[in-house]
């Protein structure tokens, strides 16, 4: 008989498996429980496209992992942008055609499954597969405000835009903070918030940035900012996320776009900051950044191989990636949602009977999802839909935050309302703050997440693509290090699922990595048992379980997160 701990969150696993079937039923008109206010909000945002069967794919009720925040569906006016000059590739004098994956027949199904799982909905390019024929000019446009320390902190900061050389009219917003330690020599780090479609400014002001916003909308220094020993960029991407903006006709929709755009952003940024060329470089991120980070790093790694072969100067000196509570191998991680019944917090989310039913039903529901994706059949029967959907009711009744099961969450329409983001939203929408940050008049309303961006990634099927092979390529290179860290109170992108794909990864030192003994992760000069090193191979690949933390480790355990990232940047063992 299973212990009480084994029945704590069984419903979550089924929710993930069922989400696809629920989304399919809704998209085909059989979904019965729809929030009509959210439907209207999406209609206002996304227009006629939603009248073609996509209008309900992201707004299902009946399970916490698919309840999207109302704030996501705020109406934002269409911006008018000004065309920027075309630009030349800094390496080859031409644009490389991205290699695109075959689109899945039932992309909406899997997209909703995992897209809603990723934190991004609340935390808040080329768009063609053909080669570009643009003839760019020689400069990246860069604009911005030197905000000094007037707004956020005790070091030099800069914010503004880089115009992407590979796009028609796309402008990426960034906030750059110099190191508090040794800015002339410390490494360069980029942070990417997930989604898909959510702004990194949220993490900057709530997690690992140089300051946090107080209730009176003033700021206070964050002593645990990740620019403690690094120069850090918080980047709004893809296009139309946060303060970034671009052409409606040239939208982003998958990791090919993410990788290409990130690569061109970095060259534009380094054109402006030549002192950072060749500096040790790391890409970090959270949640759906389990897609973003491998894609961006892999693009740079590929381009760097060509640079080395040409004996050219290496501008982007990629040294490593770090992913927190990431979503990388989506379908495999779905299978391990049920494993969170073995959480260490003595929290019961459903009774023994419900747990046994969920455990029995899970394989069937997962099979339903897989069959739908493979067949392209977007019309599951009502019985299939209802049988799986009913298993979620006990989990909802527990009133727990799926991103941090330690926290209660009362009778709210969706779990995103367990977090109060009011201060940050007011701060970033202040005209005075926007003026100081150099925000474009094309993008004066800041949202934590843009639903149009998320929908494009859903429709393309990007959310169910497995990107672990990109990580394997980086590891096999031998010069790129990887850190996976996971707060163990998160059910959504939990540590079981991350361990499953990490230990299953095919790479040169898989055997040694998997054979490593689990050991304590000690911080504060060895006085605090902050987590466990689950697997490792030297300092090249490390998987950390972080105790007493949910989905956002830098928010829940800021001191631990800072010591962790500093050790990684210094190439020290954990």
Summarize the structure.
With 574 residues, this protein is an alpha/beta fold. The chain is 34% helix and 15% strand.
What does this structure look like?
Its EC number is 3.4.16.-. InterPro entries: AB_hydrolase_fold (IPR029058), Peptidase_S10 (IPR001563), Ser_caboxypep_his_AS (IPR033124), Ser_caboxypep_ser_AS (IPR018202). With 574 residues, this protein is α/β, with parallel strands linked by helices. It has one domain (81-105, 120-354, 396-574): Alpha/Beta hydrolase fold, catalytic domain (Rossmann fold). Helices cover 34% and strands 15% of the residues. It is built from 18 helices and 15 strands. It has an eleven-stranded mixed sheet, with helices on both faces. The longest helix has 24 residues, at 352-375. The protein is globular and about 60 Å long. The two termini are 37 Å apart.
Query: Strands of the biggest beta sheet: in what spatial order?
Result: 1-2-3-7-4-8-9-12-15-14-13
Whole-number total of structural domains: 1
Helical segment count: 18
Helix percentage: 25-40%
* CA gyration radius, whole angstroms: 22 Å
Overall, the morphology is globular
Poorly predicted spans: 1-140
Query: What is the typical, i.e. mean, pLDDT?
Result: 77
Distance between the amino and carboxyl termini: 37 Å
CATH-derived architecture: 3-Layer(aba) Sandwich
According to DSSP, the number of beta strands is 15
Oligomer: single chain
CATH superfamily: Alpha/Beta hydrolase fold, catalytic domain
Structural class: alpha/beta
Family: Belongs to the peptidase S10 family.
Transmembrane segments: 104-124
EC number: 3.4.16.-
GO molecular function, one term: serine-type carboxypeptidase activity
